[in-house]
Specification:
512 residues, 1% strand, mainly alpha, single chain, Growth Hormone, Chain: A, two-stranded antiparallel ribbon
Length: 512
């Protein structure tokens, strides 16, 4: 039995996709508040904790492009269901992991599932929504991906205060289970009728390139940009991506149409999406430390205080669709970037005497800017990609967003560390204590409590706020530059998709 796309069932299908990507974003940040617990309960060292985080992010970034290509070739619904099932099984394995090695392996498996879910779920959207509704659908889908990031610390903090550490992974089980049932019943199958061949060498180069670059960027703040391993992975990743591009240009039937980069709306849309991901992920690295260590909130309280960011994001996302229809994507995205810059500028005025009320205001404005910017960008980029290649185009976009997110933590985190260490007063401290205090504000607080040094505690809090303000100023400058570049170079409205179907949709099917 089939129903037309005017049926409300297409919105239930979208709900299945939004639920799917919600947990992908959530699991990117849910462990941020769980690391001390994992260190205590599993005996995990610093390197173990790093890999528990990185195994998910590196695999996710490395495999998204091949996953999108596979969806185009094998069928997007079929591959999405596979990714959901894998993510569900890996979440259960992570929850009951008996040691760090098992947890790292489970996190890597979750990364594989997430690498399938993100690009394939986005690629399904053109098959179930006509062009005039696609903006709203993209806004809801984007809301799912973006909301998961700040929700991670909120849910993770609450669960850790009431249950054991494995519970942070069990929240995925009912959500993914429901998404699996809904996707099976509601989503139509779609694929590239040309069935483009997957080149094993091309896939290997793409995986090695993206994985190497993301790994190097993640490791650089801890090991230093001049570290031989970091340099080797960054250079090796860049060479592998160069080889992938060369291979695609010479192929008669490339896996990825690099001609997409001749379209200004695809180029600038992708750059804008990567920048927003950079600032959002960087913000979620810096702000919880301020809320938790400087303002003295617990894990759950810190997560709750990110709610204004979510509220602003929801309002901006809902408004972006109507504004884009009326004003065009260039105007809305440029304005959204300026709102984002205003939020960062407000945050950069934080002082040691300020409280949460000031933080709530600027977090709301930042969320509003992200909501106004990200959905129109995603819609414009997807509209530039032929429908039969939606998986490859979505995979490319999502992979570059992950690179942007990794760069956000690396660059903004490094900037924070530099400004904090330079402003911190460690005079009179023993060398070992001074090193620990300069390493992070958490270390400084531990040293101050051990020595009963109130002056060090005050200096650490002031230095961290100074470092956070420097990060926010840099982010504001980047957002203003982004707004100018978008206003100058991005077309006002996306051109029609070259290979769109007559009505831009397929019918929804109750059965696979």
């Amino acid at each position: 039995m089939q129903t037309s796309t005017s049926s409300p069932r297409r919105w239930w299908a979208l709900a299945a996709l939004a639920l799917s990507v919600l947990v992908v974003g959530l699991d990117g940040t849910v462990l941020n508040v769980a690391l001390p617990t994992l260190a205590r309960d599993l005996g995990a060292g610093t390197d173990d904790l790093q890999w528990i985080i990185d195994a998910y992010l590196v695999v996710l970034a490395a495999l998204m492009l091949p996953a999108g290509l596979l969806g185009d070739r094998l069928g997007r619904k079929k591959l999405l269901l596979t990714g959901l099932a894998l993510f569900l099984g890996a979440s259960l394995a992570a929850a009951f992991a008996g040691g760090t090695a098992a947890l790292i392996a489970a996190r890597a498996a979750m990364g594989i599932g997430a690498a399938i879910i993100l690009p394939v779920s986005m690629a399904i959207l053109p098959s179930i929504f006509p062009p005039d509704e696609r903006g709203r659908a993209i806004a809801i889908w984007t809301g799912g991906t973006a909301l998961g990031l700040p929700l991670g610390p909120i849910l993770g903090g609450w669960l850790l205060e009431h249950f054991w550490w494995g519970s942070v992974f069990l929240i995925n089980v009912p959500v993914i289970g429901l998404a699996l049932v809904m996707a099976t019943m509601l989503l139509p199958e779609s694929k590239d009728p040309q069935g483009r061949r997957l080149d094993p060498l091309g896939v290997a180069l793409a995986v090695a390139g993206l994985g190497g670059i993301v790994f190097g960027v993640i490791q650089a703040p801890a090991d230093g940009w001049a570290d031989p391993t970091v340099l080797a992975t960054l250079i090796g990743g860049a060479l592998a991506l160069g080889g992938f591009v060369t291979l695609q240009l010479r192929s008669r039937q490339p896996m990825v149409e690099l001609r997409l980069f001749r379209q200004p709306i695809f180029v600038w849309g992708t750059v804008s999406a990567a920048f927003v991901s950079l600032t959002l992920v960087g913000l979620l690295f810096v702000t919880p430390q301020y809320l938790q260590v400087v303002l003295g909130n617990g894990a759950f309280g810190t997560g709750l205080r990110l709610v204004p960011l979510i509220g602003g994001l929801l309002v901006g996302g809902l408004a972006s669709e109507r504004l884009t229809k009326r004003l065009g994507v260039r105007t809305v995205v440029s304005a959204g970037m300026l709102v984002l810059a205003a939020g960062f500028a407000l945050g950069a005025q934080t002082t040691t005497t300020g409280g949460y009320a000031e933080a709530a205001r600027w977090l709301t404005v930042v969320g509003l800017g992200i909501g106004l910017t990200l959905p129109p960008i995603m819609d414009a980029v997807l509209a530039a990609v032929p429908e039969e290649q939606a998986g490859a185009g979505s995979g490319l976009l999502q992979a570059l967003r992950q690179v942007g997110g990794a760069l956000g933590v690396a660059t903004l985190g490094s900037l924070l560390s530099f400004a904090y260490a330079r402003d911190l007063d460690t005079s009179g401290l023993p060398a070992q204590a001074a090193t620990a205090a300069e390493d992070s504000i958490t270390g400084a607080v531990a040293v101050a409590q051990r020595l009963g040094d109130q002056a060090l505690l005050s200096s650490a809090q002031a230095a961290f706020i100074h470092g956070m303000n420097v990060v926010l100023v840099a982010s504001a400058i980047g957002a203003v530059l982004g707004a100018i570049l978008i206003a100058v170079f991005m077309p006002g409205r996306p051109a029609p998709t070259p290979a769109a179907s007559e009505n831009g949709t397929h019918e929804l099917s109750r059965t696979p």
